[in-house]
Design a protein that fits this description.
elongated; mainly alpha; 4 helices
Length: 93
């Protein structure tokens, strides 16, 4: 009998759900193809979560930079012209 069956069904299901979510998270993190690990290689959950946190922080920084660049662009555009109307309509989508 496996240890999962001994521990109880709901606990085993919860662990399976967490493991599945960790695999999904690992799959969407960048640079997985450059890693020596494959998706079948066991990676500690803590490492996956640390990498996810680093990636999210990097994305936040990129979003902040893009927002700043967009603000500068909008400030330099004629606010009454067709270009400004086009930019506003794109931003509202």
């Amino acid at each position: 009998m496996s240890s999962r069956r001994v521990r109880g069904g709901s606990k085993a299901r919860s662990e399976d759900e967490i493991n599945n979510l960790l695999l999904k998270l690992r799959a969407i993190l960048p640079d997985q193809s450059n890693s020596s690990c494959t998706t079948t290689t066991r990676v500690p959950a803590s490492k996956i979560l640390k990498e996810a946190c680093k990636y999210i922080k990097r994305l936040r920084g990129e979003a902040d930079d893009l927002s700043e660049r967009l603000s500068q662009l909008l400030a330099s555009v004629d606010t009454t012209g067709i270009d400004a109307d086009l930019l506003r309509s794109l931003l509202q989508q």
